[in-house]
Amino acid sequence: MKIALIGYGKMGHVIEQVAIERGHTISLTIDKDNLQDLNKENLKDTDVAVEFTTPEAAVSNYLQCFDFNIPVVSGTTGWLSEKEKVDEACTKGGRFFYASNFSLGVNLFFQINKYVAKLLWPYDNYTAQVEEVHHTQKLDAPSGTAIKLSEGIIEHNPKLKKWENYVTKDRNILPIISKRIGAVPGMHSVIYTSKEDVLTIKHEAKSREGFALGAVLAAEFLVKQDKGWYGMDDLLNL
Ligand SMILES: NC(=O)C1=CN([C@@H]2O[C@H](COP(=O)(O)OP(=O)(O)OC[C@H]3O[C@@H](n4cnc5c(N)ncnc54)[C@H](OP(=O)(O)O)[C@@H]3O)[C@@H](O)[C@H]2O)C=CC1
Ligand SMILES: O=C(O)C1=N[C@H](C(=O)O)C[C@H](O)C1
Questions:
Q1: Inter-residue contact 64 to 19 (CB < 8 Å)
Q2: Which domain holds residue 114?
Q3: What is the average pLDDT score of the chain?
């Protein structure tokens, strides 16, 4: 496959490595300083774009690619308040694959998380909390993964009404605690605490390679699909 990389930062570089290892070529690299190169002429030899940029840039990058009939895989977090625009574009012909976290382990964690939430919610002695730790360059908080974990818990716990990104003793609110430390690639925990014990489910990324491999596998999957919005549950048959 010929892959256009949109966003050539920490993730863009690791995706390039993994894509080449899997026999793909990079047809185009777009970063903040050459945005004008994202055009029809430059994309004519591209099969799929892989987009890891910023919350502000992501949606306009997707829509531009769809206009040129290029399918997009994206892992950029923090833009989902604009989800409707992308939904609409996908009904009109856009091919899109989105995951807030492309690692296999985290996608299994999403499933385990819902199961544990279903088991534990009737026990009033436990209170839940989500914690995420990332490198100090991360722009958004809470992380996209922490939001998805929290939505999974709230879906299965009728006592919880919403999540908030602060510590609270309100038992109707699920707190998400965000920490920014050094170069941590990504750590997520769901913690249930009672007077007697603590039950923790935790995922720790050792590097960015797991995210990059997931994104390249998603690109290989997306080029074979029809228009629409896809995610890791489609890729992994979860
Ligand atoms: N889904 C997943 O599995 C993962 C998701 N992420 C998410 O991916 C995103 C990127 O992460 P990361 O690579 O660490 O961040 P970086 O800051 O290292 O890279 C982002 C790159 O995008 C560039 N950029 C900014 N604006 C534009 C634009 N309009 N068009 C094209 N490129 C642009 C930046 O350029 P410049 O430096 O010049 O500003 C930078 O090189 C984040 O939202 C992060 O949360 C990260 C890891 C895994
Ligand atoms: O910004 C990052 O680095 C990461 N962002 C994603 C998120 O917001 O969930 C995924 C991963 O944890 C790394």
A1: no
A2: 104-204
A3: 97
Predicted-assembly ipTM surpassing the 0.85 threshold: yes
Active site residues: 134, 138
Backbone CA torsion sign across 226, 38, 57, 150? positive
CA distance 144 to 228: 21
Closest ligand by atom to 49 CA: 1
> Do 43 and 68 sit in the same domain of this protein?
yes
Structure tokens at 156: 């299965």
User: What pTM does this model have?
Assistant: 0.97
> How many separate domains does the chain show?
2
pLDDT of residue 79: 96
CA-nearest residue for atom 37, ligand 1, is 9
Ligand closest in space to the Cα of 52: 1
Binding site membership of 74 for ligand 2 (Cβ less than 6 Å): no
